[in-house]
Design goal:
569 residues, alpha+beta, 5-stranded antiparallel β-sheet, 22 strands, 37% helix, 22% strand, elongated
Length: 569
């Protein structure tokens, strides 16, 4: 499961066939380490994704839509200056390494033709994207700046001379013609796993899975040259494969590797990577971009859970309120037996068959003052019950609210985080850095639209992805005659079926969406309530997304990612 040099070889060929002679029409940087170059080639706009993400570094054509920041980065502006309108003339790979060079011709400010190279180095945490002037090999800029204090071998800073990554003393398998060294390895290491490790030490561009697959091919028979060529020839005619391997892990490869299960094939390598990386890369971006939101929510949950423990402890103490009242009444009844200066006294408890009750006294107070002290304690605890009951209710509501926010962040797409941030700013849980200037009139922010799905019978289903979307969807967008769904007593999305009389199948499909986009995503037999929108109400003064409802019915469903994918419009 790696974007190794051999997979890079296949991707280079795919991109060359799609993009060569194409013109760069747009350049965006939706995320800190990722670029989207829109290239017009063969009368089609293609989104070329270049990623230097430490975990998901790759190069591919993507069909996944991205939301671009309102203010472009400096690196984006430099690329737009040099590459806007540029023609892609070639794509080269450095040997069989994970380095792709996108060669462009462009025009400078004077109208002179220039040759530029956009290097993409796919090397885990050392991944980078570097724009180079071909005339003098000078770096124009890099998405990650690397100084001499980080890397003594080469500097990746504007104005520095570009130096290729350290050359490996390994052989390029696509030009290899002699196989004595491979034969020697096979004789010396007949075990497949050991042979795979030996191959990685002499052949360039082999990830763990590719070296193991090659070892299996070489063990087929004694014709080493034919087996070797047959294996690598498949990288020139790939059959993109998504497969399952041992320990419930999944893998992507340029063609089916030995020992895989449940192979699923795609028409292009880029479609394969979209399928493999979509959810994984998205979760990583959400964690990266939503780090501040996650910390705020965790802090609020910790604070309120601690507060709830304290309130419950104080509430337990109020159970003794009646004891203070009884002691006060008994002292009042037997004042003539109490003398000033006593620290305790035993008196008959007429509430308990006149059994003796020991009552502590203050030797600094008179008998009546001691009695009044017990009545005051009783009254204080009695008043506290009402206050504590209200505070416990409010604190539990806060915990439910932030657990709901936490669930929404876990299920969010990067663009959904904008709404969640705005909600936390409006609730004064998070400082609004963009609108803290009181002289400027704060603009009313536009809430993102809910996600759209389509039931099997064609009925449209809308799903809110956060509290602001939920509230707008239920209280403003939906018709009162349409059907509203929500997981029963579980934080989750509001779901609207855009039909006045939906079928049972549509209700079940919408309920599956409600369960999937809830905190119970990984559960089974999730209860989902549904009712008409007219039966849903928002109490005054409650937080965004909070509603009450009646006249509901309940269905039990199992959340399914496959069904959600089928329903996506």
């Amino acid at each position: 499961m790696s974007f190794d040099g051999s997979f890079t070889h296949s991707m280079k060929n795919e991109l060359l066939g799609l993009l060569k002679t194409g013109r760069v029409s747009r350049i965006n940087q939706p995320y800190p380490n990722e670029l989207i170059l829109t290239i017009r080639a063969q009368s089609t706009n293609q989104q070329l994704l270049l990623s230097a993400n430490p975990t998901y570094a790759r190069v591919q054509i993507t069909k996944i839509p991205y939301v671009n920041p309102s203010v472009p980065s400096n690196f984006t502006m430099i690329l737009r200056k040099h590459l806007s309108g540029a023609i892609l003339t070639d794509i080269k790979q450095l040997d069989n390494d994970r380095v792709l060079r996108f060669m462009f011709t462009s025009r400078n400010e004077l109208g002179d033709q220039t040759s530029l190279c956009l290097n993409v180095e796919i090397m885990a945490r050392h991944s980078n994207i570097i724009l180079i002037d071909e005339a003098n090999d000078k770096i124009i800029d890099a998405i990650k700046h690397v100084g001499s204090d980080v890397n003594r071998y080469r500097i990746l800073l504007p104005g520095a001379t570009y130096i290729n990554p350290p050359k490996q003393d390994l052989q390029d398998p696509f030009v290899k013609t002699e196989f004595e060294d491979i034969d020697h390895l096979i004789r010396e290491y007949p075990n497949v796993d050991v042979l795979a490790n030996g191959l990685k030490k002499i052949i360039q561009g082999l990830g763990n899975d590719t070296s193991l697959a090659l070892a299996n091919y070489l063990h087929r028979d004694s014709n080493t040259a034919a087996n070797f060529h047959n294996f690598f020839e498949q990288f020139n005619s790939p059959k993109p494969t998504f497969s399952h391997i041992a320990n419930n892990k999944i893998n992507f490869t340029a063609f089916p590797y030995p020992g895989t299960q449940k192979d699923k094939h795609y028409s292009t390598l880029s479609e394969l990577l979209d399928a493999y990386y979509a959810s994984r890369a998205q979760r990583d971006r959400v964690r990266e971009q939503g780090a501040v939101l996650i910390q705020v929510v965790k802090k609020q949950l910790k604070k309120n859970r601690t507060k709830l423990k304290r309130l419950n402890r104080d509430m337990k103490e109020t159970d003794n309120a009646n004891e203070y009242r009884v002691k006060g009444e008994i002292l009042t009844a037997y004042l003539n037996k109490v003398e000033r200066g006593m620290t305790s006294i035993e008196l008959p408890n007429y509430y308990d068959q006149n059994n003796l009750l020991t009552i502590s006294l203050s030797n600094q107070q008179s008998p009546s003052e001691n009695a009044q002290r017990y009545f005051k304690k009783y009254q204080k605890l009695k008043n506290a019950v009402k206050y504590l009951t209200e505070q416990i209710k409010l604190t539990r509501a806060e915990i439910d609210y932030f657990e709901n926010i936490q669930s929404q962040i876990e299920l969010a797409k990067p663009e959904d985080l904008v709404d969640i941030r705005y909600e936390l700013e409006q609730g004064h849980y998070l400082k609004d850095h963009e609108h803290n200037n009181k002289k400027k009139k704060a603009k009313r922010r536009k809430i993102n639209k809910p996600e759209v799905f389509e039931a099997s019978d064609g009925t449209e289903i809308l799903v809110g992805k956060n509290n602001l979307q939920n509230e707008r969807l239920t209280m403003h967008t939906a018709d009162k005659r349409e059907t509203w769904l929500h997981t029963k007593n579980i934080p989750g999305s509001h779901v609207i079926i855009r039909s006045f009389d939906p079928s049972d199948q549509t209700i079940n499909e919408a309920a599956t969406l409600a369960a999937y986009f809830s905190k119970a995503r990984d559960s089974t037999k999730v209860p989902v309530d549904f009712t008409k929108v007219k039966h849903v109400r928002k109490p005054n003064g409650t937080k965004p997304g909070y509603v009450i409802y009646d006249n509901q019915q309940t269905v039990l469903v199992d959340p399914s990612e496959d069904i959600v994918s089928q329903l996506q419009k």
